[in-house]
Amino acid sequence: MANDEKMYISYNNIHKLCKKVGYEIIAKDERPDIIVAITGGGMIPARIIRSFLKVKGQKNIPIQAIGLSLYEDMGVHGDTENIGKEVIRTQWLDFGSLEQHFDSLIGKKILIVDEVDDTRTTLHYAVSELQKEVEEQQKKLDRLDEPTQFSIFVIHNKDKPKKAELPKEMMESGHYYAATTVGDSWLCYPWDAEDIDEHTKLAAAQGNI
Amino acid sequence: MANDEKMYISYNNIHKLCKKVGYEIIAKDERPDIIVAITGGGMIPARIIRSFLKVKGQKNIPIQAIGLSLYEDMGVHGDTENIGKEVIRTQWLDFGSLEQHFDSLIGKKILIVDEVDDTRTTLHYAVSELQKEVEEQQKKLDRLDEPTQFSIFVIHNKDKPKKAELPKEMMESGHYYAATTVGDSWLCYPWDAEDIDEHTKLAAAQGNI
């Protein structure tokens, strides 16, 4: 699908893609201890994949939201050099409240969720900031030998040059989950649809149902 | 629909119910300054309604997530007296990061979103804790004369005796938005569906499409 073509995605298609990756993670016995949803785009896939990561007799996996926006998407003027590279944090993990469940993120399996890996800028920011935070906690608590596992789940990865990288070990160890890889199309997500019946028909015509 | 009957709801039905309330809010010229999503249930309706609260030329409304769970749903043993009344906070507002957008919540329009108003316990907790927080900020900053508006949006309100109340002025001034009121049925949300095609068919058969 070319750059200027619109790709319509139905809710049921999103649901099936979340299910696919949820099953993959469970099959690998890598159920996360916590899901970190990047708002707004990650909220819907995060909630859906949680259903497929459920294990009978286990509590729901806690979801924490982090708010990240690119300056360019906020309509805020930035340095032209840095356009697309600068990320605004609008919400961060709440370690205070997390402590009711965890002492920290140290040694845990953390699944970071967003809807799309476009330029990779936001995901890069999320992973590196979370890693930094865990390292600081490790030093503070003198628990340097407990490895923490970061994974990423996105519905769509756009096959295009990226502006930022993700950790090599994450990519190579199979902890980067893209339910599907697409061209550099214009992705029309259902939650942005004005007329959802019309949108669903367009998605069905493209097989994204 | 009786207590023991299952009510199946499709994603497109959820979308339409969010749209209905979004339009209602815009028609009243009461676009919120911030959306507070109660995780996990409120995440999907919060993201969808944001699309319908968008005004051309305006930035997206920021979403903050707060994590609230009833003790009983967590599988944690509590005092039997207090079962259903006790709420666990797993994440709270991040005022630090909010400050990039706001100085505080004082004087703002705040829309709290959850999927269902069942016993009303969680919503009561959310509103009263947020109100307390704003009052403390008002005292601290000596800004006692700026009224803050709290509204609630839920997809479904269950018509049943509630275990907790919401502020009288909110209910009477039309700031409690339930897209639809249902009996005390078992609500089957699409994000919990194992087989989404089958689920959608069942929802269609009940007219929830």
Low-confidence stretches of chain A: 75-81
CATH architecture of the domain at 31-67 and 84-183 in chain A: 3-Layer(aba) Sandwich
Number of helices, counting only DSSP H or I runs of 4 residues or more of chain A: 7
Please give the share of residues in helix of chain A.
25-40%
Strand order of the largest sheet of chain A: 4-3-2-5-6-7
List SSEs of chain A in N-to-C order.
EHEHEHEHEHEHEEH
The CATH class assignment of the domain at 31-67 and 84-183 in chain A is Alpha Beta
The protein's oligomeric status is homodimer
Q: How much is the radius of gyration of chain A in Å?
A: 18 Å
Average pLDDT, all residues of chain A: 90
User: Number of DSSP strands of chain A?
Assistant: 8
Largest interface here, residues on each chain? A-B, 44 and 45 residues
Here the CATH topology of the domain at 31-67 and 84-183 in chain A equals Rossmann fold
* Spatial shape of chain A: globular
Q: How is the biggest beta sheet of chain A arranged?
A: 6 strands, mixed
**Helix/strand/pairing category of chain A:** alpha/beta
Distance between the termini of chain A: 17 Å
Strand content of chain A: 15-25%
Organism (chains A, B): Henningerozyma blattae (strain ATCC 34711 / CBS 6284 / DSM 70876 / NBRC 10599 / NRRL Y-10934 / UCD 77-7) (Yeast)
Keywords (chains A, B): Glycosyltransferase, Transferase
InterPro entries (chains A, B): PRTase-like, PRTase_dom
Domain Phosphoribosyltransferase (chains A, B): 11-132
